Amino acid sequence: MYWIQKEKDDQKRSEQLHEGEGLIGRRALFKSESKLPVDMEVWELAPGVSEGDHIHDKDRPLEEIYYILEGEGVMTIEGEEISVFKNDAVMVPPGVDHGLFNNSDKILKLVIIWGNAI
Question: What is the tens place of the pLDDT at every residue in 26-44?
Fold first, then answer.
């Protein structure tokens, strides 16, 4: 048995996250099918859109992994600006202030994976 998701068939939603600028396009991957203790989504940020800086602390101690599929942007991690490009991966542990901004003129597309840190 296996599952396959086709982008053209998936339900997508757009929302503002963590008081960022603009709307982030979000597409959940295997939300109800996977038994892994993580969530996975494909995000699309138009030029000028940001996730907003935030911290996952003791109330919700999440670890997040960002994997850039297309485009480029800037992650802010503990106040430091880090440029990210296609095929870059960034892992952010719980308690670390972070955010993502598309500072380019093209779509920034990424996979984000998050779950409770052990």
Answer: 999 999 999 999 999 999 9
- Report CA-CA distances (Å) from 60 to 77, 86, 95, 114: 18, 29, 9, 11
For the chain, the distance separating the N- and C-terminal CA atoms, rounded to the nearest angstrom, is 29
pTM for the model: 0.95
Residue 108 lies in a domain: yes
Give the domain CATH number at 75: 2.60.120.10
Say how many C-beta atoms besides its own lie within 10 A of residue 12's C-beta.
12
Beta bridge partners of 34: none
Q: How far is CA 110 from the centre of its chain?
A: 6
